[in-house]
């Protein structure tokens, strides 16, 4: 039997299980490094299916590795399952409506991500058993992708050692092999400690942490003009010093996220931001405490693996939708601005070699992009980061995007949470599982492809060495509340 047919049949036959898992994780909506139920659910299924599971890596209790088989090649599926804060939202509705006020929600589709990788690992295992194929498959349960860089901490512990190739995906608004590079980043917190006093009676005795935060932010906003175009600097005030204007705020804290195409560039920006913080402390006579929170590396492509995955993506064929699915996507799109709706087109125009106005014009009217986007060798940079970047520095890595949401849906929005619990999303999830499993089976059958991917990787990293971007002693940080 054709290997793709075998894998498709396996995934179809287990459809109910995978949908149940995805919906359960969507409902758990657990934040970074606290994915207790999500991690337990996926690792438990893998264990029942005969994978050897090792739970807890470094300081991360929700990280795990599940292994099946022996010998080479070692193919690793990457799974994520964390949610985002403040995004609680009812599923399958085009109205903004939280389930739990202030609660978390799956605004990046990681419930689909982790479940499709699970389905891919199980389908590949079933194929190996049925056909007596030798090799090792691993499922990496990677916690804290959102603001935690779980994989980078896992990489620091040596968890990905021995991987020959890594395979992953991300739910999105179109279907294509992931060809974009991503930005490296560093996240650090700056606390300014001063002295409280009566803001009217004795302001001269106070030293304001909040003043320091404000001055630091002004300084870094001026810095932006003098950074390369691709760099990004953003911040959130995590402690404004209190709620009383009549007290000089004795302590305030701001969390910075700095990004650039390479880690070296990001580190240089971090040094400049640190100098600005020191300046703010000097100006306000406060004491500065810097806490390095996390970092991740840029994602490095692998053309050999991209081609293999693309062949499988084409062979698997396009997605198709029911009238109802189309209608719901249209309704969701009514909640976007014109500019939002155009965003997917902007991304595609950037990604594809020669998109052509006719092709874009035709896609523009589709609420759900069912056709496959052709890959290109063109260099494109995605203005975002992923901790999959660190894995790509350790082994050749390939990913794809699969349509799970209406065209124009922005990441980290209530619309993405809502669509995450629909049949459209589950279809995309099964499709991604099939593409990943088919890619893995190709690699298992053709060791030469693994060798070529490794050669390309070795050439690309000839003068580069992976050094963890996270300094010693830094621990994974759950969300501060
Ligand atoms: Zn994501």
UniProtKB/TrEMBL annotation:
<dbReference type="InterPro" id="IPR017439">
    <property type="entry name" value="Amidohydrolase"/>
</dbReference>
<dbReference type="GO" id="GO:0071713">
    <property type="term" value="F:para-aminobenzoyl-glutamate hydrolase activity"/>
</dbReference>
<dbReference type="InterPro" id="IPR036264">
    <property type="entry name" value="Bact_exopeptidase_dim_dom"/>
</dbReference>
<dbReference type="Pfam" id="PF01546">
    <property type="entry name" value="Peptidase_M20"/>
</dbReference>
<dbReference type="GO" id="GO:0046657">
    <property type="term" value="P:folic acid catabolic process"/>
</dbReference>
<dbReference type="GO" id="GO:0016805">
    <property type="term" value="F:dipeptidase activity"/>
</dbReference>
<dbReference type="InterPro" id="IPR017145">
    <property type="entry name" value="Aminobenzoyl-glu_utiliz_pB"/>
</dbReference>
<protein>
    <submittedName>
        <fullName>Amidohydrolase</fullName>
    </submittedName>
</protein>
<dbReference type="GO" id="GO:0005737">
    <property type="term" value="C:cytoplasm"/>
</dbReference>
<dbReference type="InterPro" id="IPR002933">
    <property type="entry name" value="Peptidase_M20"/>
</dbReference>
<dbReference type="InterPro" id="IPR052030">
    <property type="entry name" value="Peptidase_M20/M20A_hydrolases"/>
</dbReference>
């Amino acid at each position: 039997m054709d290997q793709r047919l075998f894998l498709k049949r396996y995934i179809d036959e287990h459809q109910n299980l995978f949908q149940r898992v995805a919906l359960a994780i969507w409902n758990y909506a657990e934040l970074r490094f606290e994915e207790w139920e999500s991690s337990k659910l996926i690792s438990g299924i893998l264990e029942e299916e005969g994978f050897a599971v090792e739970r807890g890596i470094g300081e991360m209790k929700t990280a795990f590795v599940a292994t099946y088989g022996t010998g080479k090649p070692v193919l690793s599926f990457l799974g994520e399952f964390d949610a985002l804060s403040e995004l609680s939202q009812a599923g399958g509705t085009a109205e903004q409506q939280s389930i739990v006020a202030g609660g978390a929600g799956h605004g990046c589709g990681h419930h689909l991500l982790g479940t499709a990788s699970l389905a891919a690992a199980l389908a590949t295992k079933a194929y190996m058993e049925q056909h007596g194929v030798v090799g090792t498959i691993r499922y990496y349960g990677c916690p804290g992708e959102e603001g935690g860089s779980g994989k980078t901490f896992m990489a620091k512990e040596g968890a990905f050692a021995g991987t020959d190739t890594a395979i992953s995906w991300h739910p999105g608004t179109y279907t294509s092999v992931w060809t974009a590079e991503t930005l490296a980043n560093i996240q650090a917190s700056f606390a300014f400690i001063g002295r409280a006093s009566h803001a009217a009676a004795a302001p001269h005795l106070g030293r304001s942490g909040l003043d320091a935060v404000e001055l630091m932010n002004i300084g870094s906003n001026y810095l932006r003009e003098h950074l390369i175009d691709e760099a990004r600097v953003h911040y959130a005030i995590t402690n404004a010093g209190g709620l009383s204007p009549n007290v000089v705020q004795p302590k305030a804290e701001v969390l910075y996220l700095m990004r650039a195409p390479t880690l070296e560039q990001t580190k240089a920006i971090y040094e400049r931001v640190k100098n600005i913080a020191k300046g703010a402390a000097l100006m306000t006579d406060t004491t500065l405490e810097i806490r390095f929170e996390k970092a991740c590396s840029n994602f490095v492509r692998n053309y050999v693996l991209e081609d293999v995955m693309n062949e499988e993506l084409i062979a698997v064929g396009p997605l198709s939708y029911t009238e109802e699915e189309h209608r719901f996507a249209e309704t969701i799109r009514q909640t976007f601005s014109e500019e939002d709706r155009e965003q997917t087109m902007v991304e595609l125009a950037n990604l594809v070699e020669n998109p052509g106005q006719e092709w874009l014009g035709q896609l523009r009217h589709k609420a759900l992009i069912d056709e496959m986007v052709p890959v290109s060798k063109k260099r494109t940079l995605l203005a975002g980061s992923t901790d999959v970047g660190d894995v790509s520095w350790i082994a050749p890595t390939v990913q794809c995007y699969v349509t799970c949401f209406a065209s124009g849906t922005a990441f980290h929005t209530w619309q993405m949470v809502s669509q995450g619990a629909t049949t459209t999303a589950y279809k995309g999830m099964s499709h991604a599982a099939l593409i990943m499993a088919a890619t893995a089976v190709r690699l298992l059958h053709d060791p030469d492809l693994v060798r070529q991917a490794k050669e390309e990787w070795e050439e690309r990293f000839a003068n580069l060495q992976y050094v963890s971007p996270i300094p010693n002693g830094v621990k994974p940080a759950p969300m501060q509340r």
